[in-house]
């Protein structure tokens, strides 16, 4: 009887889906399209056994091309609810491979709110499987840490941190209490310097620091470690910093001190809204 009741409910939900959703997700009114996507996201999350498959996911994928930003936004937030649950990741693999390029392109959306949520979605994708995103995909997000729009930059900073800075080797666990250039942060500070130099936007160190300030404060405030890298002799087998790398580290260090003292984003970075339809 339980199985019969479950079958009956599923048949009713399928009837609602085919009779209402399939017609209304393309409704002329954007608000109705947004409601449809939001609801199908809830169905897939709450009843993943029946609805989290490509027969339903494809509608969310198609709607990511909607002309209205509010509808594209609902697609991304619906997907975030799914990718956040790691138990559902295996059911999302085909969707990810099929629509990943669209999500990456949405990080440059004319609507800032959409761009921010696209970056946050890619951060969840990154956490579910590092192999899914190519180096080129990641590069497309990395350069957004230099965006003039702070919410976009901060989201990109968190993506960058999760990808390049959040790994810790097992041997690092044993030196957590060491300070200076022997601390676990030493390699992370070097990684930050290398990234800054590779990005070739050398006048924008303040932007990079501000982007990562919320997620990497402990690293950016480890001035003892930065001083040690500049002043102390390299450890055995350690490559010394070049003059160019030392100059970059000094520039980054100055920006972190300014950020800590002034407690506000650098000049030219704001949170203004941009209006657009695509």
Automatic annotation (TrEMBL):
Domain of life of the native organism: Eukaryota
GO cellular component: chromatin; cohesin complex; nucleus
GO biological process: sister chromatid cohesion
PANTHER family hit by this protein: COHESIN SUBUNIT SA-2, STROMAL ANTIGEN
Gene name tied to this protein: Stag2_0
Transmembrane segments: none
Domain SCD: 21-106
Pfam family, one: HEAT_SCC3-SA
GO molecular function: chromatin binding
Record-stated family: Belongs to the SCC3 family.
Organism annotation: Panurus biarmicus
Name this polypeptide is given: STAG2 protein
């Amino acid at each position: 009887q339980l199985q019969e009741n479950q079958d009956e409910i599923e048949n009713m939900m399928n009837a609602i889906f085919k009779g209402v959703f399939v017609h209304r997700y393309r409704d002329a009114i954007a608000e109705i399209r947004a409601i449809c996507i939001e609801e199908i996201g809830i169905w897939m999350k709450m009843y993943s056994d029946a609805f989290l498959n490509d027969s339903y996911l494809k509608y969310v994928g198609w709607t990511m091309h909607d002309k209205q930003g509010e509808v594209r936004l609902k697609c991304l937030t619906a997907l975030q609810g799914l990718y956040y649950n790691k138990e559902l990741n295996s059911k999302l693999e085909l969707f990810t491979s099929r629509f990943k390029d669209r999500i990456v392109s949405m990080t440059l959306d004319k609507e800032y709110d959409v761009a921010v949520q696209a970056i946050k979605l890619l951060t969840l994708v990154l956490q579910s499987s590092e192999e899914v995103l190519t180096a080129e995909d990641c590069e497309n997000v990395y350069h957004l840490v230099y965006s003039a729009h702070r919410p976009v930059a901060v989201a990109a900073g968190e993506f960058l941190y999760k990808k390049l800075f959040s790994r810790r080797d097992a041997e690092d666990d044993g030196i957590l209490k060491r300070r200076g250039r022997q601390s676990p942060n030493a390699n992370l500070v070097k990684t930050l310097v290398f990234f800054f130099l590779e990005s070739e936007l050398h006048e924008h160190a303040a932007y990079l620091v501000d982007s990562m300030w919320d997620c990497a404060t402990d690293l950016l405030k480890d001035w003892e470690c930065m001083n040690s890298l500049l002043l102390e002799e390299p450890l055995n087998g350690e490559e010394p910093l070049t003059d160019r790398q030392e100059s970059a580290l000094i520039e980054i260090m100055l920006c972190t001190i300014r950020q800590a003292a002034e407690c506000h984003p650098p000049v030219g970075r704001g949170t203004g809204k941009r209006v657009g339809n695509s």
